[in-house]
Write a structure and sequence with these properties.
The chain is an alpha+beta fold. It folds into 2 domains: about 70 residues, Roll (Nuclear Transport Factor 2, Chain: A), CATH 3.10.450; about 90 residues, PUA domain (Archaeosine Trna-guanine Transglycosylase, Chain: A, domain 4, Roll), CATH 2.30.130.10. It has a 6-stranded mixed sheet. Strand 3 and strand 4 form a beta hairpin. The protein is globular. The protein starts with a strand and ends with a helix.
Length: about 160
């Protein structure tokens, strides 16, 4: 992690508002110590020294803000989720892309190219985040193909750095 620096809430307020509206959550960062940092190609927002959000670019170089897995631990009611069965978990923990065969449910608002978070269907715990290659209906109804290109997962470098 480099270029770590404190920031005022009003400086990153538009970024936080976008994140809150996209996921339907309240980040509750009033009074928290906020920082920005660079981590590889990503910009991160740290809340009380924990990386809670990242800013990434898609293939078209458009910028997106999304929670990290640690952020989703605090906001398990956030939108843009995909639920997978227990058979998919070992593969996701190794950074594999998410195949639609393991998907059981998905937030109806998901479109192709959206950033989504993957959770287990039983405990609703975050497992990974990635780019959807299909919409919600296709993710839940198809039986073959790659549904999500994984970007960050439990056990990767970012997850290890956050603990």
């Amino acid at each position: 992690m480099k270029k770590r620096r404190p920031v005022r809430r009003k400086k990153i307020a538009p970024l936080l508002k976008t994140l809150e509206s996209d996921l339907g959550i309240d980040l509750q960062v009033d009074g928290a110590f906020l920082e920005m940092a660079e981590y590889g190609p990503w910009s991160m927002v740290l809340v009380d020294k924990i990386a809670k959000a990242i800013e990434v670019q898609n293939q078209e170089r458009e910028r997106f803000v999304f929670l990290t897995l640690r952020g989703f631990l605090d906001h398990d009611n956030a939108g843009k989720w995909v639920e997978v069965d227990h058979g998919a978990i070992p593969f996701l923990m190794k950074g594999a892309d998410c195949m639609v065969a393991g998907v059981h449910a998905a937030d109806a608002s998901i479109e192709v190219g959206d950033l989504v978070w993957i959770r287990d269907m039983t405990h609703k715990r975050p497992l990974a985040i990635g780019w959807a290659t299909m919409n919600a209906e296709e993710l839940t109804n198809l039986t073959k193909g790659k549904g999500i290109n994984t970007l960050h997962w439990v056990g990767d470098e970012l997850w290890g750095m956050e603990s």
